[in-house]
Amino acid sequence: MKIMKFGGTSVGSAERMGAVSQLLPTQEPVIVVLSAMSGTTNHLVQIGQQLAQGNVAQAESLTNQLEQHYKQVVTDLYKQEASKDKGNQVVQTVFADIRACFERTFSPASEKIILAQGELLSTQLFQIFQHENGIPSVLLPALEFMKITPDEEPDQVFIRENLRKQLEKYPDAQLFITQGYICRNAKNEIDNLKRGGSDYTASIVGAAVKASEIQIWTDIDGMHNNDPRIVKNTYPIAELSFDEAAELAYFGAKILHPSSILPAQQHNIPVRLLNTMQPEAQGTTISSKRTGNKIKAVAAKDGIIAIKIKSSRMLLAYGFLRSVFEVFERFKTPIDMITTSEVAVSLTIDNGTYLPEITEALQRFGTVEIDSDLTIVCVVGDFMEDRPGAALKVVQSLRHIPLRMISYGGSKNNISFLVNTSYKEDALISINEGVFQEKEETNA
Ligand code: ASP
Ligand code: MG
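^ thats the input. predicted complex w/ aspartic acid below
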């Protein structure tokens, strides 16, 4: 069994859906995981925001716009009247469900019902499209098996068992279609895996069925070695290890949802990033294979806040860091980078929701300094500690840039720098010149 996940642009039009159909295998069962058609989730988010502010008329007008759009999709997508009728039926039901939320008092639960409609639309419309083209398929309702725990982690046992029950009903089926992103929470309400979560669905489903491969189809030809919006001549990286890919996805490569590496890694299932616009391109394969002594890529993550806690109490004391970390735990705020000296510790967060509370709590330990508008520049590759000088080229290429923090040695495949966001472009370009100019060179 293979998993193939298609993103919003890959199913964004009648033409694109046709292209997706061409890519589906005929000899092997496959679970196709779909995102909402491009732009839809953003539009649904806006509807939710208007409702949250009590602007029902605005929400209605946005809903009407989206409904018009989907009626056009149905007209463009299908040739046969019977398919158009079925498509319009789907559109009608979905939009009735959205409008039903206008009548209730607005709550996060009704917002999540609204957000779920994009994937419910794309999967049903895609199935009708397959049917019109004579390809039998089974729609697996994600809300019957995708579930998260009270900690918002996938409930692996529930998912495995319930997905199996669904699949067992159709022993001869070859093509299964399911919704990415949507799930039920511990209260059994409709919920989601956060923005971009369809990739995560694909890898959770892949792990649950022990798939042979998880393919993530987007409109780029794999993970690039640098940010193509900033740097010229970037190229897709053919092979990455799970750890390298996780660092890159987390630190800014937008192509893959960062959480989606772990389920695949736990079951050692290769993840391939492929391009629907260029299906013959090799893309990026992420697997457990070690891929040589190379610096692979650089990515950058903006919106970082640095917190420095200076305290003479830290000198020769133990238990100090634990007290500091407890503050972040209490406010459910993950720490990204950390460096320490004997009398101070600096760390970074990217979620400032509880910054005032965190700052206040940390002031018990010493002086607290906060800096914002920072960027983490993360260089990923093989920095085995027994390879002298592996990091030198990277550091040298940044010699003209003020570095606020450096993190090296946390893992063997990452070196991260904290810089002012105003230096980000310069940093990415300089690392490109210093490290990646020669694509084929073993840059060590
Ligand atoms: N449709 C959702 C989003 O736009 C999930 C996804 O596409 O992965 O975030
Ligand atoms: Mg995505």
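The first strand starts at residue 2 and ends at 6.
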